[in-house]
Design goal:
With about 325 residues, this protein is an alpha/beta fold. It has ten helices and eight strands. Helix 3 runs parallel beside helix 4, helix 8 runs parallel beside helix 9 and helix 9 packs parallel to helix 10.
Length: about 325
Amino acid sequence: MPATHRTCLLIGAPIDSGQRRPGCLMGPAAFRVAGLTAALESLGHPVRDLGDLAPDAVEPTTCDNPAVHHLTETMGWTAALRRAGAQAMAEGMPIFMGGDHSLSLGSVAGVAEHAQAAGRPLFVLWLDAHSDFHTPGTTESGNLHGTPVAYAAGQPFAPFPPFPAPVPPANICLFGIRSVDRAEHAALLANDIVPHDMRTLDEQGVTAPLRAFLDRVAAAEGMLHVSLDVDFLDPAIAPAVGTTVPGGTTFREAHLVMEMLHDSGLVTSLDLVELNPFLDERGRTAHLMVDLVASLMGRKVFDRPTRSYRGQG
């Protein structure tokens, strides 16, 4: 169903437990201040802001890997987001405002649960500098924001509950990747997941590989979850992220991706993650992320307002 026909449900998830640099918990508030609701409503979309979630209370849990930190808290967030995501999918298009990328452990699980109940395949477009294909057992940093794709793909993920309806490798598109650990690379190859890294995008442009993926989603009558990490963008235009990797997508490349997604009419849910307002420059990254969501939801390039950051207060 085209995005223009869906109510947008904003779900805040102020998560900081998936990594070690504080600040992402301010992300949902920053998206609101940057005008996400107004941008969506200006395009004719009904918006319901469901406020910020809190993590479920779960029993204290340990992991065999001593590097993993904030495990119990992250599992609580995952449970809360899974439940909220499944419910929101039945009511409209959820937009999950993070928070670090461990948010997607729960958001994708909730979406997958809904897709399974609806009898439709789920596809995942991962817009990120990183492949996020570690598991709690393989991560050396212990940062669980680097694990959601492995969870969604059904990799061994104790002590988390099994992922509902794991997403087949062919249904996962890693796009804009430019930082992959050796262990992750080996695991991706073992699972037949081929990242579309920045060399691929440099050689082919963003259009050809993205269109090929979207054609497969359409042919399968699938549901499409998009997970947009701030570090998908080049840090020169989006500095408000704790995991900067040079060589990301440009302003125009990112907007082209969003415009193609809108034209496809396939997107059914969206993550906005890793925005750290403490690292931003007068709201520059937050405003860019809101502009990208607007492009995803129908704003055309010639509709984009002129903005001067120098005069904003």
